[in-house]
Design a protein that fits this description.
Blueprint lengths: L7 H10 L6 E3 L4 H13 L3 E5 L10 H9 L2 E5 L8 E6 L11 E6 L4 H10 L7 E6 L5 H13 L4 E3 L3 E4 L15 H13 L5 E4 L13 H7 L2 E6 L3 E6 L6 E4 L7 H11 L3 E4 L11 H10 L4 E6 L2 E5 L9 E2 L5 H7 L9 E2 L12 H7 L13
Parallel strand pairs: 1-2, 5-6, 12-13, 16-17
Antiparallel strand pairs: 2-4, 3-4, 6-8, 7-8, 9-11, 10-11, 13-15, 14-15
Helix pairs in contact: 2-4, 3-4, 4-5, 6-8, 8-9, 8-10
Length: 380
């Protein structure tokens, strides 16, 4: 495995998997770790407990736990029904019979694609494989496709049939893999170019033009906010500031992690923006919709709920003048608001939250000329 991320979520998962005898697994604030580890431990029959931070214990896991129980896992909730912490009590294996085709599950797709990815990844270990019927609106579908593509890279036989996902019983095969650059992390650099003076440009490495990541949508979104992307050789991008469109309408169903970045840029540029597909933002590291509403208001911007899942961004009176931004234990709040330093000084509370996905973020900002004071929080 090459180019593995130094993000805390990645390092945490490695540490936990390296300690198979742990009586308690602490997923901290990592939703991906919590959900993937729940499926892995349940399907390997472990008897242990799985917990996380106070916020993690407010994030639902019932859809995944119910599905795992259908597959034979025995799971108890230690506090609130449907939420971590969990006690895993082993698993009753399914008998292998020649008559069976697939083990079948119906799973809601409108809460988190991570539940579906977690189930898909354990699918090859089941004696009949797994057939998942997706019900309701499916969010973040590119992450499901990415999961299937990576599973295939490691020898799994699986396919996406739209509302149905199929995984055949098949042992994974160890093989080499180079992890591609993170388009979610790249979105913050797009934001900086969008807020920079006309003609500004920036080069970003290790980003694939033909990526499995849904957040590559930032290319098309930021083109409307005044950032032109040129794909160069060796997985390198050149970003150039141009004139933005007069308005923007965007559905974030498949790329919810871009919503904060886009909302901040649109408000700062005073570009009226209509946003939909934000349902999953309520159950992230924080309630990201409420957090955006609170913090944009400090600058004269707004994120208004128009009803029926439609939100409107406005920033006609937007001004950066030393405000303090709360980050709500959310790495993406810190990084989404940091580019505003191009427009004036500001303070970000609890800047260390970026360690979750982008530990070197502040150092890399300093490399391109940002001046930070880390005590008690970065001041730009």
């Amino acid at each position: 495995m090459r180019n593995l991320s130094d993000a805390n979520d990645t390092q945490l998962m490695q540490r936990l998997l390296a300690d198979p005898a742990a009586p308690v697994f602490d997923a901290e604030d990592a939703g991906t770790v919590m959900r993937f580890l729940t499926a892995y431990l349940a399907m390997t029959g472990r008897q242990t407990e799985l917990t996380g931070t106070a916020r993690m214990q407010e994030r639902p896991i019932k859809v995944l736990a119910d599905a795992l129980q259908e597959l034979g896992a025995r799971i108890e909730y230690l506090n609130q029904d449907g939420y971590p912490p969990l006690r895993l009590l082993g698993r009753t294996p399914q008998p292998a019979t020649e008559e069976a085709d697939f083990t079948e599950l119906k799973v809601r797709g409108d809460i988190s694609s991570q539940y579906i990815s977690a189930l898909l990844m354990v699918g090859p270990t089941l004696p009949h494989g797994l057939r998942i019927w997706l019900t309701g609106k499916v969010g973040s579908r590119p992450y499901i496709r990415m999961t299937l593509a990576l599973m295939q890279h490691f020898g799994a036989q699986c396919r996406d049939l739209g509302e149905v996902l199929e995984v055949r019983p098949q042992a994974y095969e160890a093989t080499n893999y180079t992890v591609e650059g993170d388009w979610s992390a790249a979105s913050y650099w797009y934001a900086m170019v969008a807020l920079a003076p006309a003609g500004s440009h920036l080069t970003l490495p290790t980003l694939r033009r033909y990526s499995w990541q849904g957040d590559q949508a930032i290319v098309a979104i930021m083109a409307q906010l005044g950032v032109h992307t040129e794909f160069l050789a060796d997985e390198t991008l050149r970003l150039t500031k141009r004139a933005p469109n007069a308005s923007l309408t965007q559905d974030f169903t498949d790329c919810p992690d871009l919503a904060q970045t886009v909302a901040v840029v649109a408000a700062a540029l005073g570009i009226p923006t209509t946003m939909t597909g934000l349902e999953s933002l309520r159950i992230k590291e924080t309630d990201r919709i409420a957090a955006l509403q609170n913090e944009l208001a400090k600058f004269g911007g707004s994120l208004t709920d128009e009803g029926a899942g439609v939100f409107q961004v406005s920033g006609q009176d937007f001004r950066v003048a030393g405000q303090t931004v709360a980050t709500y234990h959310d790495h993406r709040m810190a990084m989404a608001f940091a580019p505003l330093a191009l427009l004036g000084p500001l303070t970000l509370e609890a800047p260390q939250v970026v360690r979750k996905s982008y530990p070197q973020f502040w150092r890399e900002l300093e490399k391109v000329g940002f001046v930070t004071d880390p005590t008690p929080a970065p001041v730009f």
